[in-house]
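Input record (Table S2, row 489):
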Amino acid sequence: MNFPKEFMWGGATAANQYEGGWDEDGRGPTLFDVMTGGDTNHPRLITFINADGTPGTMREGEALPKDARYAVLDGYYYPNHVASDGYHRYKEDIALFAEMGFRIYRMSISWSRLFPKGIEDEPNPAGIAFYRNVFQELRKHNIEPLVTIWHFDTPLFLEEHCGGWLNRQTVEHYVRFAKTCFTEFKDLVKYWITFNEINNTIQFMKLAGRPAEDSDFQKAYQILHHQFVASAKAVKIGHAINPENQIGCMINGSTNLPFTCDAKDVIYCNQLWQKNIYYCADVQCRGEYPPFAERLWNEHNVEVKMEDGDLEILKDGTVDLFTFSYYHTNCVTTHKTGEKDKVPGNYQVGVRSPYVTYSAWGWSLDPDGLQYFMELMYDRERKPMMIVENGMGAIDEFRDGTVHDEYHIDYHSTHIQAMGRAMANGVKCIAYTTWGCVDVIAASTGQMSKRYGQIYVDVDENGNGTYDRYRKDSFDWYKHVIETNGSEL
Ligand code: BG6
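Output record (6-O-phosphono-beta-D-glucopyranose complex):
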């Protein structure tokens, strides 16, 4: 493989899954702080107190009962409260990243560490100081920070009292937050992402535990419109504050493939691409809703409320980079299939493909799907790409101070090769960051045992452990990959 010499190798984490320190130094809570752990068979639960004082739980996506309040309850374990303890150990982690030779590190800023409720006029100085220290530490090691402004973690106050992203006012709260980040960290950060996996809102509705109704689609498309406007405004402000800023969208590259060559399957598959991927990517990269948007809205009687000037805002705020995550492919069909053909894992939809293997969480392992995604999306959006999440969640066996994780090595090696093939075919890609380079709490299940990292964190599913860091076999392997600029995989 011949990667450009300036290619940026690195790793990625997100504040709510990595930092912990959930109530320290003035940070406000987010929805993740009232969420228990789960697994593939048991969804994470959100805890609350009813108006009459009785405790309650619900699944993500369900509505809070009338007059109930989100609450941390006795008797439950909340994995994001301490997460990987990055809030206290980031220096040690950055030193390990440097040892691996990272040139870039993707992380996110916790909105509620800067604006505890989301509505304040001025940021929390302790939050600003924390992130300045992190960025300075990265710079000390010549690691370029790549910063996600929103990684699913809206302040809980905005969710609970203001209607979250359904409320147009959240756009302005977000813009104030984004502007603060661009201003405060102007001298330290130039790569940014406005919204993590913005397309999850529409593509994962199926996973809410019940069939989606028209009213769910109405909400989803409205939320997306607000986020598109917020992102476009942020991009414009980011460029005005520092013309050197490079700002990306972030699309979950969950790749759909048709199960058969029946044209009906191919059309169905294409329509899933339109809904799940192109819809968001086009608005953020081209600055306008795609031609099939009307059809998508009409299918569910959706009326997206837009304000005068919104379409111009979208036009003026297109991103510089096509930034995306890639984990797996979905095999989809219009044909009737039996229960046994369904894919059991979380986040994965469609039927079982005979051409791939599946992880313990039912996620398909399909490097060719990455090549396909990159070639298709580069043709479509023509923006320099960054793969900012890629990896495989697995159960690690920690023994004698290390983990022999040849499965992680194999996953990354085959996916880096696929990225190289796409690049050899003309795709411009400038960075690759492994997801959860240091083990983090899984977003979907809240598990620590679903590990992606090159660095092992000594803590179990219930928060027992020292939180000490250990190098896995994949640590040495990735170090060598970076040393040889991807020529020895
Ligand atoms: C992406 C998210 O959906 O996938 C990450 O951006 C997440 O936050 C990652 O951690 C992997 O998913 P999970 O559920 O295995 O953590």
